[in-house]
Amino acid sequence: METTSHIGNARQHLHWIATVDERHATLFSCTMVPGKRWHIEKKNSTQNTWENSHEMHRPNTLGGGSKTNSVQHSGSFGHEKDEENLRFAREVGTWLKDAAKKHASEHICIFAASRFLGLLRKEMGSHDGRIDLHECELTHLQPQELSVHPTVLAALDRLNIAASK
Prior knowledge:
By secondary structure, the protein is of the alpha/beta class. It has helices at residues 53-57, 70-102, 114-124, 143-146, 150-164, and strands at residues 2-7, 10-20, 24-33, 37-47, 108-112, 131-135. The protein is globular. The protein contains 5 helices and 6 strands, in the order ββββααβαβαα.
């Protein structure tokens, strides 16, 4: 996403990026500061509330005595995890689309872990070119680390060039 403000005679563009994996998503604002460096600030985040939801709503059969079928349970755990990830991908897709509309701007760059990118891409569907998806695991990085990460810098530079035209 991009908005423009005027500081003196210089145009300053505000861009947006998000980092996403199967556990959480964070939205950051990005502005160019003197010295052609990026200032990145955390603006909002969301957590996967679906994670471990099966533990709240279903009994745990592990350790339930000799009649417990742990093989069957471990097989269903993979399916439950897939379902949790799908639900969170839907939630994140809606959250990011709403953020794009709220800021009424052109683009938001989303950096998603490869294991989550496919689900997110499917859930984002049509987004009118406002959202760019990138395969890159960045959720563990702090804003100051994002501001010097080569993949983030390349994406922000592309947004800045496009906004200047």
